[in-house]
Amino acid sequence: MQTGCYAAAAMRDSGLPTFLRLDVPAAEPVAAVLPVPYERTTSWGRGTENGPEALLLASHYVELYDEELEVEPCRIGIETLPPVDVEGSDESVLRRMSAAAEATLRKGRFLAAVGGEHTVTPALVRGALDAGTPDLGVVQFDAHADLRQTYRGTPWNHACAMSRVLDLGLPTLAVGIRSLTRPEAVRIANESLPIIWAEQFDALPRPELEALFDGLLASLPDTVYLTFDLDFFDPSVLPATGTPEPGGGTWYQALGLLRRLFERKRVIAMDVVELAPIPGNAASDFTAAKLLHKCIGYRFRRELAGMAET
Q: Which residues form the domain of 262?
């Protein structure tokens, strides 16, 4: 276990920045950040292929110390992996995503993937299953249901991401939904898919919202994959995403639920997707980078607690 954060080279051989500027020996890390700069089906604003680089670069300005955890989460060891090659047919690229996720998880590392559009999620979840993960559940923070069977002629559209996850036979919990089609609404009702709607964030007192989240979370397996589409946030918090929707969550609402998720479940992997950087406005990039930093801290909170005084 690492006892300090290494200063880093700013860039990898791939040309992408490293997360938090960390340069960690390959034998050390217990968490791995995987850039997945994939964008082929975005339906409005484009630019998610630039999301991984923007997040990684913004992370260079995230303070390593977390005032909530009272320790530097990077002390557990975080490696930035080479980006997934996104050239070629859809099928070949998705297979490479799955293989990268599987390889990382088979090494016993926590996988933190950075997209890219939401299409990457089912491929990464497939990799978690291929790594031998039993009884996996998926928690989705998102503005959109993403339950279309096909969209614009393909089942591998970002608007179909959670349909492809359900095709894998996995239970899900969606949080923050406020945009969907009538067929998606019918499917949610017919299949009793658990959802916390965005309007409930304001309608319910915080203890009731947390109790609702805890109750729905309890129905999932102990092992969980987290997918965080950044349009979960209200655009006043994070405007740089392809399809922003008004009425989303705030920073501290998100952290409050994420903290509970990581306390109650064994989260083995996650992704942060749909960052579409806005030139000249780096606030969203920084917010996304800090979100990933917070999640890694929550994931290893117990391990870090013993390091707080060292």
A: 19-305
- Quick check: is 9 in a domain? no
Q: CB–CB of 160/146 below 8 Å? A: yes
* Eight-state DSSP code of residue 36: E
Q: Are 20 and 74 in contact (CB under 8 A)?
A: yes
**What is the pTM for the complete model shown?**
0.93
d(CA 32, CA 113): 8
230 neighbors 158 (Cβ within 8 angstroms): no
Rounded to a whole number, what is the distance in angstroms from the first to the last CA of the chain? 13
59-93: per-residue pLDDT in tens?
999 999 999 999 999 999 999 999 999 999 889 99
Cis peptide before 116 (omega within 30 of 0): yes
SS3 content of the chain, % helix, strand, coil (to 5): 40, 20, 40
- The values of phi and psi at residue 78, to 5°, are -125, 125
Answer yes or no: is 10 within a domain. Answer: no
- Structural domain includes residue 12: no
248 neighbors 234 (Cβ within 8 angstroms):
yes
CATH, residue 173: 3.40.800.10
Q: Considering its fold, how many domains does the chain have in total?
A: 1
Domain-embedded: residue 164 = yes
In this prediction, the residues of the chain whose per-residue pLDDT falls under 50 are 1-3, 7, 26
Q: How many residues does the chain have?
A: 310
What is the residue type of 301? R
pLDDT at 2: 41
Which of 254, 252, 232 shows the shortest CA–CA distance to 244? 232
pLDDT at 1: 39
Question: 265, 266, 233, 270: which is closest to 252 by C-alpha?
Answer: 233
What the block records as the tokens of 218 is 């309890």
What single-letter DSSP state applies at residue 91?
A: H
Q: Are 121 and 94 in contact (CB under 8 A)?
A: no
